[in-house]
Amino acid sequence: MSTKVGIQIALKALGEFGYSGVVLPHNKKRAGLDLFLKDLLSDDHILKRVSTELIRQSLVQIDAREEGLRLTISPAGAMRLISVNASEISIPVMKPWDNKWRLVTFDIPASKSTERQYFYKRLKKLGFVMTQKGMWFHPYDCSDTIRQVADYCGLSRYISIFLVSSLDPSARKILSSKYGTDLGIF
C-alpha cells in the first residue's frame, strides 16, 4: 500500500466522525494519531509514513482535552477527502437499458480552464463518448453523478444534461463502436 492510499483510508475513516472528530485516550499527539491509524493500517512502516504526512500536510488537527486527544479532520483534510470522493464517483449500470442516451454539453469559460480540464478527464473516465466537440454521450442515467462532479468543480452553471431518444447516423456509428455489443442495440 502506498502512503497516498493510506492517507485516503485515514481521511475517510476520520471523515465518518464528522467535524466533531474522535477522542483518543492518550496524551501524546503522535502516539494518539498512531493509535487511531493502527486499526486501519496493518503495516507499521506505512502507518508511520501516513501519520507523518497527515501532520506535515496539516490534514488533521489534534487538540489536547481533559479526556484525551481530540482528533479531527482539518479544512485541508476535508478538501482532500472531497477530492478523493469525487474521483471515486461512478455511474451505475441499468439492466435492461432504457434505450435513451444522456447528452452532456458544456460551455465553460477560458478563465476556468483548470476546472474544465478536470471535468473533461472525469467524463472520459466515467465512460462518456464525444461525438462532436462538446457533446458527450452515455447510455445510463448519470444526472446525479455529473451534478456531483460539476458541483465539485464549481461548474454547475455551465453544464447541461439532456435525455435523447434518437440519434443521427453519424452519432450512432460513433457510439456503436464504444457501446454496441455491451447494450446489444447496434
Describe this structure in words.
The strands form two sheets. The protein has a four-stranded antiparallel β-sheet with strand order 5-6-4-7, sandwiched between helices. It has a three-stranded antiparallel β-sheet with strand order 1-3-2. The longest helix has 15 residues, at 169-183. It has two domains: 3-85, Winged helix-like DNA-binding domain superfamily/Winged helix DNA-binding domain (Arc Repressor Mutant, subunit A, Orthogonal Bundle); 93-183, 2-Layer Sandwich (Alpha-Beta Plaits). By secondary structure, the protein is α+β, with helices and mostly antiparallel strands. It has seven helices and seven strands; from the N terminus they run αβααββαβαββαβα.
Features:
7 strands; alpha+beta; about 190 residues; four-stranded antiparallel beta sheet; three-stranded antiparallel beta sheet; about 20% strand; about 45% helix; Arc Repressor Mutant, subunit A; 2 domains; Alpha-Beta Plaits; elongated; single chain
How does the SSE layout of this entry go?
Layout: H1 3-15, E1 22-24, H2 29-38, H3 44-56, E2 60-65, E3 68-73, H4 75-87, E4 101-106, H5 113-125, E5 129-132, E6 135-138, H6 143-153, E7 159-164, H7 169-183
Helix pairs in contact: 1-3, 1-4, 2-3, 5-6
